[in-house]
């Protein structure tokens, strides 16, 4: 009897695996493209020191969260105020850039996705490697992050 289980498991795996791996279907490429566009729009807002454009990346209808280098913010208003202060610092102290080097999107179905972004935060003369991880939800206004985490790797001087 115990020999039957591996055989049945192997057969079911061969039958079901193609269905699971194609669960994204033809829309998977569209999800990836649209999420990548949302991430690049966030980076463009960062580059322009535009707190409103950065905040548009997050879902304003639910309880969005942002975890960033030891800071935890809940709610779109708090996150928007934080992005506005980041943008103001950039305007006061110099040019800030977010150089996106890679975006990896994993679809969690037609309406949810995870994006892992490898990037560099640049504020001349310094640069820091960083990673952004976001869980996004499809809304009537496009893909918006429900939760977002940003980590910057400090450089040793």
Order of helices and strands: HHHEEHEEEE
Proportion in β-strands: 35-45%
Q: Total helix count?
A: 4
Shape descriptor reads globular
Q: Largest sheet, described in full?
A: 6 strands, mixed
The Cα radius of gyration reads 20 Å
Span between N and C termini?
Answer: 64 Å
**What's the structural domain tally?**
1
SSE layout and pairings?
Elements: H1 4-21, H2 27-47, H3 51-55, E1 65-68, E2 71-74, H4 76-93, E3 96-107, E4 112-123, E5 126-139, E6 142-152
Parallel strand pairs: 1-6
Antiparallel strand pairs: 1-2, 3-4, 4-5, 5-6
In short:
Helix content is 39%, strand content 36%. The chain has 157 residues and is of the alpha+beta class. The chain has a single domain (25-152), classed as Nuclear Transport Factor 2, Chain: A, CATH 3.10.450.
List keywords for this structure.
single chain, 157 residues, alpha+beta, Nuclear Transport Factor 2, Chain: A, 6-stranded mixed sheet, 4 helices, 6 strands, 39% helix, globular
Can you tell me about this structure?
The chain is an alpha+beta fold and 157 residues long. The protein has a single domain (25-152), classed as Nuclear Transport Factor 2, Chain: A (Roll), CATH 3.10.450. It has four helices and six strands, in the order αααββαββββ. It has helices at 4-21, 27-47, 51-55, 76-93, and strands spanning 65-68, 71-74, 96-107, 112-123, 126-139, 142-152. The protein has a six-stranded mixed beta sheet with strand order 2-1-6-5-4-3, with helices on one face. A hairpin with a 4-residue loop joins β3 (96-107) and β4 (112-123). The protein is globular, with a radius of gyration of 20 Å. The model is unreliable at 1-26 (pLDDT under 50).
């Amino acid at each position: 009897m115990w020999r039957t289980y591996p055989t049945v498991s192997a057969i079911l795996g061969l039958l079901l695996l193609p269905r699971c791996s194609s669960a994204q279907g033809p829309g998977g490429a569209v999800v990836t493209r649209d999420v990548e566009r949302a991430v690049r729009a966030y980076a463009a807002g960062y580059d322009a020191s535009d707190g409103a454009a950065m905040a548009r990346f997050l879902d304003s209808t639910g309880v969005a969260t942002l975890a960033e280098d030891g800071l935890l913010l809940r709610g779109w208003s708090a996150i928007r105020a934080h992005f506005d202060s980041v943008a103001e610092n950039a305007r006061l102290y110099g040019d800030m850039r977010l150089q996106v080097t890679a975006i990896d999107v994993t679809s969690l179905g037609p309406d949810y996705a995870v994006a892992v972004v490898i990037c560099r935060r640049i504020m001349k003369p310094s640069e820091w490697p960083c990673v952004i991880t976001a869980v996004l939800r499809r809304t009537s206004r496009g893909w918006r992050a429900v939760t977002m985490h940003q980590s910057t790797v400090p450089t040793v001087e």
